[in-house]
Design brief:
Length: about 290
């Protein structure tokens, strides 16, 4: 599918502040399954330096430095991207270790995936208790487990919009019933780690949310399967990720996949944060155009 999008985020302060360096992860991926064909970023006030790089987990990142006092920060991006993965299961798992649970990766992969295997709540058995009956029902078969886990989370939780704040810990999400997509992405990843499957958090966009009255960025999870690489699962939709998701950033720590991170100096409070997203999709017919504000 082909997507054309723009995304503006504005932060307003009650009085002038000095902006510390900001990290911006808003450039979509470009890889064998997603081709970024154009990208533009504009920032007001204009940074004295804008440096683009790749972070430790392979995400494109822009670092912005500022010099003057300001009462508003606006970040605008525009991009075109083609998503190419129509079949989310176009692979075969290599080796027997990852096909049965608990999953076991070869030694070289085990070291590379250490961060994605580490539990985010190491002292909690909540996720282990949640997945136990799913493991039994699927007889420890990895691919069936992933599908059933995705379906179980989707059917048991209602997804709502929560604009501010990070994702809930998995133990709190399990006790809730109305949660944000980022909460479910973290829960899915923790459940996978509980049975030895490497998993990470992903931020981006989805065509599904463009059909609603108000659009937001979306979150889901990816798991690593030898022979398949990183493969996405979206528990808030109950889907394996294909060409209707646009991946932007991925990390074992959701904070490191946030679109914008930074601080400021001054006595002001953040009076408001608002955004505007325009998303158009095209799949062989006339583009479906929606301009959405939040």
């Amino acid at each position: 599918m082909r997507f054309i999008a723009s995304h503006t985020t504005r932060f307003r302060y009650s009085e002038p502040v000095y902006l510390e360096p900001h990290a911006i992860r808003m450039r979509p991926r470009s890889d064998p399954w997603q081709r970024l064909t154009s990208f533009r970023i504009e920032i007001e006030p204009e940074p004295v330096l804008l440096s683009e790089a790749v972070d430790a987990e392979g995400n494109d990142i822009a670092q912005a430095w500022f010099s003057d006092l300001t009462q508003e920060l606006a970040i605008r991006i525009a991009f075109e991207v083609e998503t190419l993965r129509e079949d989310p299961f176009d692979y075969m798992v290599v080796g027997d270790g990852a096909m049965r649970l608990p999953a076991k990766y070869p030694g070289d992969l085990q070291q590379s995936l250490a961060g994605a295997l580490a539990r985010c709540e190491p002292g909690s058995d909540a996720a282990s208790g949640f997945v136990r009956p799913i493991v039994e029902r699927t007889r420890g078969r990895t691919l069936q487990f992933l599908a059933c886990l995705n379906e179980a989370i989707y059917r048991n939780y209602k997804t709502v919009v929560r604009v501010h704040g990070g994702p809930l810990p998995p133990s709190k999400t399990l006790k809730a019933r109305r949660v944000a997509c980022r909460d479910l992405a973290v829960l899915f990843a923790e459940c996978c780690r509980a049975v030895g499957i490497a998993a990470r958090f992903v931020s981006g966009y989805t065509e599904h949310s463009a059909r609603t009255d108000v659009n937001h960025m979306h979150a889901w999870a990816e798991v690593f399967l030898p022979g398949g690489g990183w493969r996405g699962y979206d528990p808030s939709q109950g889907l394996a990720v294909s060409d209707r998701h646009i991946a932007v950033a991925a990390s074992v720590d959701p904070r490191l996949a946030a679109p914008t991170t930074g601080t400021y100096r001054g006595a002001a409070s953040t009076e408001a944060m608002d955004f505007e997203i325009s998303l158009r999709s095209h799949a062989g017919t006339s583009p479906d155009t929606r301009t959405l504000q939040g």
